[in-house]
Amino acid sequence: MDKFLKVFVDDLNVHNLIWEEHVEHLQYVHLRLREVNLKLNPNKCEFAKTNLTFLGHVMSWDGTQLDPRKIKLVTKFPIPISMINV
Question: Is this model's pTM higher than 0.90 or not?
Fold first, then answer.
């Protein structure tokens, strides 16, 4: 499953390049969730996306890259001007 499924705590990401495989893998994941009595919240589900932001990364047909918004936040972070003893 690690080839088509990424899991982080309660976030699941099923991804494939071939649509038919994707549908099969979605069915497999749903079956496994049902077997252990776990349910998905439809309001938090997204299906058939061509790109997706997941855990600070953007996943698309071009591969997985860091989310540019996160990079901007880090590069624009203000430089400290004084030290405070804690």
Answer: no
User: Among all chains, which residue has been given the structure tokens 């496994």?
Assistant: 32
Two structure tokens written together for 82 = 């004084």
Neighbouring-strand partners of residue 52: 59
What DSSP character marks residue 23?
A: H
Task: Give pLDDT tens digits along the chain (86 positions).
Answer: 778 888 888 889 888 888 999 999 999 999 999 999 999 999 989 888 888 888 888 988 888 899 999 999 999 998 888 887 65
How far is 35 from 81, CA to CA, in rounded Å? Answer: 56
Residues 6+ apart with CB under 8 A from 84: none
Whole-number CA gyration radius for the chain: 18
Pairing outcome for strands 52-54 and 11-14: unpaired
User: Environment class of residue 6 by beta-carbon count within 10 Å: exposed (0-12), middle (13-18) or buried (19+)?
Assistant: middle
